Amino acid sequence: MSDKPVLIVIEGPTGVGKTEIGIELASYFHSDIISADSRQFYKELNIGTAKQSDEQLATVKHHFVNTLSVFDYYNAYLFDQDVQTFLTGYFKDADICFMVGGSGMYIDAVCNGIDLIPDIATEIRNDVSQKFKNEGIESLQRELKRIDREYYSTVDKQNPARLIRAIEVFKQTGKPYSSFRVHSKKERQYTILKIALERKREVLYERINARVHSMMKQGLESETRLWNDHRTLNALQTVGYKEFFDYFDGKADMPATINAIQQNTRRYAKKQITWFKKDIDTHWIDADNIDLMIQLIQSHC
C-alpha cells in the first residue's frame, strides 16, 4: 500500500493491446489516462498511429492525445515537464492515474526525469541535414556509431530523425546524446508501478500483421499521401508512414510496401521489448490476464 498517489504505467510493444487494456483498467479504477505514445500527440495522424477511436476517448478521459501539430517541435523533456504539471493538479483530487503507451524514452522521462537538451544552432542543423541528403542514412549511422556507441546500440537505426538529432546534439555540445539521458533519478511526489504487457511472439506478430491490413482498409495510404510533400518532418519518420514514400516515388509496389510496414513494425516491437526488459522494476504480465493486473494495482494503492 502507498501513502502517495500512484501512477500506473501500462507499457509494452506495439500491437500487444495497450490501448484496450489501459481503458479497461482505467475504467475499473475510475482514472484518467495519459498517453505515452509520441505519435498520438499529433492531431493530423490517426490511422497509422493506431489512435484511440472517438468511442474509446469518450469512455475514459485521455490526456496528451491530439495536442500537437506535425509541424510542432516536441521532445521527451517537454513531455516530462507537461506531465509533471498535469499530475500536480490531477493528484490534488485523485489517488491514481494511468499512463499508457510504448514510447520508452518518453515514459522514462516521466518516471526518472531527463536533462534539458540544448537548442541546436541553425548552421549545425543545416550541415547535418545536408550530410543526410548527400550521403544517405548509412553515413549518419557510421557517424553516430563513432561518436556515441551507447545510443547507437539502442536507437532505431532506420529512423533518420533520431540519428540526426543525436549527431546535432554532439556537434552542439561536444557531449554524446546518451550523456543527457544518464543522470540521478529525480524524486517524484507519487509512486510508480510499471506493468508491461506481453504475448507469445507468434501471437504478437500475427496481431501486428493483421493490424497493418486493417489500417490499409481504413485508408492509411490516403492519410500518408496527404503528407507526401512534408515527408521530412520528424512526425512522418514513423513506421507505417515512411514506407509509403518509396511507393509514391515508384520505387516499390503496394505488396512490398505492406510487407515493409509489417516487417518494420515487428522489428520495432522487438526493440521496444528489449528497452522495457532493461528495467528490473517492471512487472511483465500476459496481456489476457486482466485479473492479475487488477490484483497487482490494488496491492500498490
Describe this structure in words.
This protein has helices spanning 18-28, 54-59, 76-90, 104-112, 122-135, 137-147, 149-152, 160-173, 201-218, 220-225, 244-248, 254-277, 290-300; strands at 6-11, 33-35, 62-63, 96-100, 191-198, 283-286. The longest helix has 24 residues, at 254-277. It has a six-stranded parallel sheet, sandwiched between helices. It is globular. It is built from 13 helices and six strands. It folds into two domains: 6-114 and 183-300, P-loop containing nucleotide triphosphate hydrolases (Rossmann fold, 3-Layer(aba) Sandwich); 122-181, Histone, subunit A. It starts with 5 loop residues before the first strand and ends with a helix. It has 301 residues and is of the alpha/beta class. The model has no long low-confidence stretch (mean pLDDT 93).
List keywords for this structure.
Histone, subunit A; 301 residues; alpha/beta
